[in-house]
Design brief:
Length: 340
């Protein structure tokens, strides 16, 4: 007997990207993302502008996702949406749209934790992509989060460590701002790091107990370093930009890898999956691959399109919850500080 196909529409609107994806069982049929270029002018995401842009983008993005998937909205089995964490105004747009669509089609509504979705994106069924076995360790690294999570089952997750102040992505962006780079600065620092000497300059590695992280001290150290050097040589940044970027990236990767190694030692788990926007960083990917050779880890690195905020990861969580009939009530509320 042929298995009936389950079609899930995923909607992601936690920050500044409006995304919709359609999934058939655990395979992605479409994954459409509309980004918001306007924030580059302000050096960071402006919440009010983000929510307005979501309102403009969500209908055409969902329409395009359905069209690319080659299905009609009446074929959908459920609508999954990001409940949180994220910017409240942005979350409300996606939540309201998802509720309205699911109610109008008389199909289940499924709320999704954005951070769980970054982790469970590894379970999208695609060629040449190995899925991590349970239990595994997940490191979620983005502009708003830095966490190490023990994943025992799809929805059995324990946060072992997290940042006590700033996220790793923020450390990249704020350092880039000090250097006069555009927003977001992470990709540019990564690009220039590959051209520079990673040991040209030494920066502070914060001492934080256990598996928690801290990046505020590093940001301050970089700021004072650049101010001091520019005072002595006004052309310091221009003359040494690649080396500065390489040294910043070397320090950040060192902090992340040290905590991961400690997590492996404490748990005995050597299957490591990464997720979140910063997992696109080439230096972090290389460090993980090196650890495979030196420490016997097995690393799981998502496709680039599943690293930044996207609706495919929301849809796969929706599918896994659909199988368990874990549906939401229509009075479910967006939550800006939702925990795993």
């Amino acid at each position: 007997m042929k298995k009936e196909n389950i079609y899930i529409l995923g909607i992601e609107s936690s920050c500044d990207d409006t995304s919709a994806a359609v999934l058939c069982n655990d395979q992605i049929l479409s994954n459409v993302v509309a980004d918001q270029k306007i924030h580059a002018e302000y050096g960071g995401v402006v919440p009010e502008l983000a929510s307005r842009a979501h309102q403009q983008n969500i209908v055409p993005v969902v329409h395009q996702a359905l069209e690319k998937a080659g299905i009609k909205k009446e074929q959908l089995s459920a609508v999954a949406f990001t409940r949180g964490p994220g910017l409240m105004g942005s979350l409300l747009v996606g939540t309201s749209f998802a509720k309205s669509l699911a109610y109008g089609l008389d199909i289940p509504l499924i709320d999704v934790n954005h951070m769980q979705a970054h982790i469970l994106a590894h379970f999208i069924d695609e060629d040449h992509h190995n899925k991590p076995p349970f239990p595994f360790l997940a490191m979620t690294i983005s502009g708003g989060h830095t966490q190490i999570v023990k994943v025992s089952r799809y929805f059995e997750m324990e946060v072992l460590g997290e940042t006590i102040d700033d996220a790793v992505g923020e450390a990249y962006d704020k350092s880039g701002k000090v250097l006069g780079l555009g927003y977001p600065a992470g990709p540019e620092i990564d690009r220039r790091a590959q051209l520079g000497n990673p040991k040209a300059y030494q920066f502070t590695k914060p001492k934080v107990d256990g598996l928690n992280f801290s990046f505020s001290g590093l940001k301050t150290n970089i700021l004072y370093f650049v101010q001091r050097e520019v005072k002595a040589n006004p052309n310091f940044i221009e003359e040494n930009l690649n080396d500065i970027c390489a040294s910043i990236q070397y320090t950040i990767i060192g902090i992340l890898m040290a905590k991961l190694k400690l997590a492996v030692k404490e748990t005995g788990i050597n299957h490591i999956a990464i997720g979140g926007g910063v997992s696109a960083n080439s230096g972090i990917r290389k460090a993980l691959k090196d650890a495979e050779q030196k420490s016997g880890w097995t690393s799981y690195i998502p496709k680039f399109e599943y690293t930044t905020d996207n609706a495919a990861m929301i849809a796969i969580v929706g599918y896994l919850k659909y199988l368990e009939k874990d549906f939401s009530d229509f009075d479910v509320m967006a939550t800006a500080r939702l925990k795993i």
